[in-house]
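Supplementary Text 2. Reproducibility record for the structural model of the 225-residue chain.

All settings were left at their defaults, and a single model was retained for analysis rather than an ensemble. We include the record here because the model underlies the residue-level annotations in Supplementary Table 4.
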Amino acid sequence: MSTIERFSNASTDLQVSGFLHRPESLSEEGLVLTHGAGGNAQSGLLVAIAEAFAGAGFTVLRCDLPFRQLRRFGPPRPGDAARDREGLSNAIKEMRKLVSGRVFVGGQSYGGRQASMLLAEETLPDKLADGLLLLSYPLHAPSRPDQPRTQHLPKLHVPTLFVHGTRDPFGSIEEIEAARKLISVKTELLIVEGAGHDLGFKGKAKREELPSRILRLFQTSFFRE
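Retained model, structure tokens:
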């Protein structure tokens, strides 16, 4: 069993705020998760994934991006992205203080995009995080495949796991496969049949088996030697 507690650290310019899942046994690895443009750290998908990973021994932080800390509702504004990445960077650094091993970062939709852009901004050999989990990566706006959000992907230098639904209007499976080829390091794709952008987590609905599928791929064929 893991425990969940509120987490807040205002020692930096951008506060880190969210929920911390501590595993029952001493943890060496950490995972920072953040939300999409319309959600927050309490989204059902993030909670379910955090519980699954904490149950397997990860320390997990579900955090609210700076734009959500300022506004309880509504999507981010065009000028929010850089601050959101800085806030996510602070959250990863806080996780580094909590665990002695590797730290992974990921998010749903907008949150995953900002996480990927943050890691793409790094210059080797510096490494803020050890791997990336992209839940419903928004490759393009619905019906706008001519405007892909892939320019930064070739700059990624950490292993990346995509989790994507076959009915996601923000990108088809074929488009995700093409995007994976832009990344020079190892990538994996977990396909969720029949799921849209919410991956089956909408309101009280949820795909009970999905978090364990993500965890299993993460552990057995991706980040563990």
